[in-house]
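User: Can you predict the 3D structure for this chain?
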Amino acid sequence: MTLEQQALIDKATSRKNLGRGEQRQLGMMLQDALKLSEYQSKMIKEMRAEIIRLKIDRSSANENK
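Assistant: Here is the predicted structure, written as structure tokens:
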């Protein structure tokens, strides 16, 4: 996070009035954070599924020994 972004967040959380440009910038930052969060959630689900597949593969291999 840049110093400019942190200053904008500080201003927004201190209940000071934001200008139109600041509101737009804050909105874009929130959208980016949401997209990142959704991407991270998707990747975590995929990793969990892969771990389960690997455990199943390993247990199948152990049974076939």
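The chain is about 85% helix and 0% strand. The chain has a mean pLDDT of 87.
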